[in-house]
Amino acid sequence: MASKIWDAFISERDRKVFKAAGYGVEGTKPARPALVLIGFNKRHLEGPDAVSGASEAMNRAAVLARHCRARGLPVIHVTGATRPDGWDRPQEDGVAAGADPVGDNALVTTMRPEPRDIVIRRQAPSAFFDSDLMSFLNLLGADGLILAGGQTAGAVRATAIDAFSLNLRVVIADDACFDPWQASHAIALCDLDAKYADPTPVDALLPWIDALPEDAFSLPAGARDKRPPLMPATEGTER
User: Between 3.50.50.60, 1.10.10.60, 3.20.20.70, 3.40.50.850, what CATH number should domain 30-210 receive?
Assistant: First the structure.
């Protein structure tokens, strides 16, 4: 069995419990998945508060998004929605001096939405909470999600659990996810693998994505002339 990122954090007792309970068995992948990209914004990727590992995760997510678009799968971006004065975030005690909550939620250039992509703004960890996400998934006829982004133990985990609760099949592109802490990143993926989703590296997902029926979704018309082709590999960032 291939090693998992959480192997270094779990005990021998945990391994026995997992084996006895049958945790971690790969589930059936969705037949009509939508790609949901969470938190690839300036707060996580640029400036003093940038999250370690977020740039590497973004590069893997960009590959994933390109392959999904090439098959005509929905690509949905999720970022935050905060007033400039922070009034709508009382649990954070306002906005620190010099902070720019609106600018921080802007998506970075590498992950800029394309014309047929969908953008959702949220005020809670889960992309489903008080948002249009489920409505759009119903409109698309999607039966599951491919999740990528951050933070793994926060928004990604919350979204995956809500998706599971809504009877959606969930695949997590684990090397396209990021979290400030290695331990929380690893243990969140471990828990999701045990109960709610299938964490899988991007390279292992691409053959499945590339074999899905093309143009199976009725996507927004956008303003494009044609689907962008898959680009040649660029060492260190793209495939």
Answer: 3.40.50.850
